[in-house]
Amino acid sequence: MTRWQAFKDSYFLYSFKRDKVAVTSFVIFLLLLVMAFSAPWTAPHNPYDTATIDIMDSNLPPAWMDEGETRFVLGTDIQGRDLLSTMMYGMRVSILIGLGAVILQAVLGIFIGLVAGYAGGRVDAFLMRLADVQLSFSTLMVAIFISAIFQTAFGAGRYEQMAVPILILVIGLAEWPQYARTVRASVLGEKGKEYVEAARVIGLPSMRIMFRHILPNTLSPVLVISTVQVANAVMSEAALSFLGLGMPVTRPSLGSLINSGFEYIFSGSWWITLFPGFLLVLLVLVINLLGDWLRDVLNPKLYKG
């Protein structure tokens, strides 16, 4: 039996096809991904090309309203950029930051959780107390603190150029304890089993036992956490950008678009904030719904640790 045939006959796919919410969420998420990453070719305008932007087009309402223009379906923002195109480009930035931050969280958290759970004793106590200290502060507080330090150190101009990698680093460093605690709980349940004892008896090094034998058995809860954490990272980026500590207005993300239009929402230009806000809510909602489905399909007891 081929791997593809095994996948088609698996309980995973069977459960997915029977869950209408999961199927709908996956289709919407796939459409959003295609919209975001095909933006350079499918977006009506390029918000980074200043030669195509006219400040006289600023604050135009959506095409179906009075004074709206058909070339700007969802209207324009305060800089005269087509809002639909800017949202497509901005969603790509938000998703890239979310994925990058989750990869960093996973690398840090999985390594620390493996070491803590396998080594035990003082090493475990120290690493988990470190995680507890970080968890005692809100994620947003840690992210704001680190982001403010970067802006002060590099200056506003340099920060704009490095905003994406800095936000990935900031959000990644703020969220790794979630992975560490979950992986540690899984390792504690695995390290006393016979296959681990056999690996020790034949003289395999600890690092190989942890990464080649124990780690694969912790991937189910890690996958569930990763799905949820992508949504959290996207929300963290949006919150930081809304507070002025994330993506600059000149490099749109969903958060910076919401921020740029917020002061104009009561003056009548509601579309600048409302449409990016709706897109952000939709993106986070479908990711969370997929995460809930994964949690139910995979081992929920293992996920809860």
TrEMBL record:
InterPro entries attached to this UniProt entry = BP-dependent_transpt_permease (IPR050366), MetI-like (IPR000515), MetI-like_sf (IPR035906), OppC_N (IPR025966)
State the superkingdom: Bacteria
Q: Where in the cell is it found?
A: Cell membrane
One GO cellular component assignment for this chain's record is: plasma membrane
Q: How does it sit in the membrane?
A: Multi-pass membrane protein
Q: Which SUPFAM superfamilies match?
A: MetI-like
- TM segments? 21-41, 93-118, 130-150, 270-291
Know the name of this protein? Peptide/nickel transport system permease protein
